[in-house]
Design brief:
253 residues; Endonuclease I-creI; four-stranded antiparallel β-sheet; 8 strands; 3 domains; single chain; alpha+beta
Length: 253
């Protein structure tokens, strides 16, 4: 009575934690049919891509560059929450001002778990890019019960290897989540006349000293000069370093 696409769509929505009633209304399939697909039709049971961290000898995610970017986003504006049936939600909150960033975030999540659904939850002024998987804590062992700045944040050796191999992707993810490129201005006396001049600058702001350290360590690795602007802000303002950041990161879009 129902085509395969409808069945798969219904099961994917159920995996996201949706109720039978809401899935029935959205897909047009009866609740009885959806319940039957969940419990009796083995070929239609959704099987996700095996987790590279859970299969005997663990290996890195297939697309290491995309993972480095996603790791930066997660450490900045991401969280992982447990759901029923051992499923976890990852949420990366992105400002509506940057539609390109939202697209890049979704692409990175899809790259990490290509067989899992990704969806966007609209909120006031922002979008939470969200996906479900039983394996998000495997991908992000920094997941924990309290706020990131209230606990230790350290990379696992396999994560550090990825960051070492793809430092700019990691930096870009951190800047896209908790950073910005701005134009500063100042005045100075030139032949007795006060003149205004402008210069670009990158800021990264995070309450976690550990995350700031990961950021500055990676900046050091790629030859970017930085300074601690205040207790939670890292500034990049030297011309050559800003040029490097512009080449590899650039402003949000």
């Amino acid at each position: 009575m129902y085509d395969m696409g409808t069945r798969k769509r219904a099961l994917a929505l159920i995996d996201q934690g949706r109720s039978l009633n809401s899935v029935s209304k959205e897909t047009g399939a009866s609740r009885a049919a959806i319940r039957s697909w969940r419990t009796r039709i083995e070929p239609l049971k959704r099987v996700g891509k095996p987790c590279p961290r859970c299969q005997g000898a663990p290996g890195p995610p297939e697309n290491a560059a995309a993972y480095a970017y996603l790791l930066g986003l997660y450490l900045g504006d991401g969280c992982i929450n447990a759901h029923r049936r051992g499923v976890y939600f990852i949420r990366i909150v992105c400002d509506n001002t940057w539609p390109g960033l939202i697209d890049a975030c979704e692409a990175a999540i899809r790259s990490a778990r290509p067989d899992n659904s990704v969806f966007r939850v609209k909120k006031d002024g922002c979008v939470a890019v969200t996906a479900t998987s039983k394996h998000w804590p495997c991908f992000f062992p920094q997941h924990g019960p309290s706020k990131k700045h209230e606990r230790t944040i350290a990379l696992e050796p396999w994560q550090q290897e990825i960051v070492d191999a793809h430092p700019w992707e990691f930096i870009r993810g951190l800047v896209h989540s908790d950073g910005c490129r701005i134009t500063n201005w100042a005045t100075r006396l030139v032949k007795g006349e006060r003149k205004r001049y402008e210069y670009p600058r990158y800021f990264f702001t995070n309450l976690s000293a550990d995350i700031r350290q990961l950021y500055t360590d990676t900046l050091d690795a790629v030859g970017v000069d930085w300074r601690q602007a205040n207790s939670r802000n890292i500034s990049v303002a030297r011309r050559a370093s800003v040029a490097l950041m512009d080449t590899h990161v650039g402003p949000k879009y």
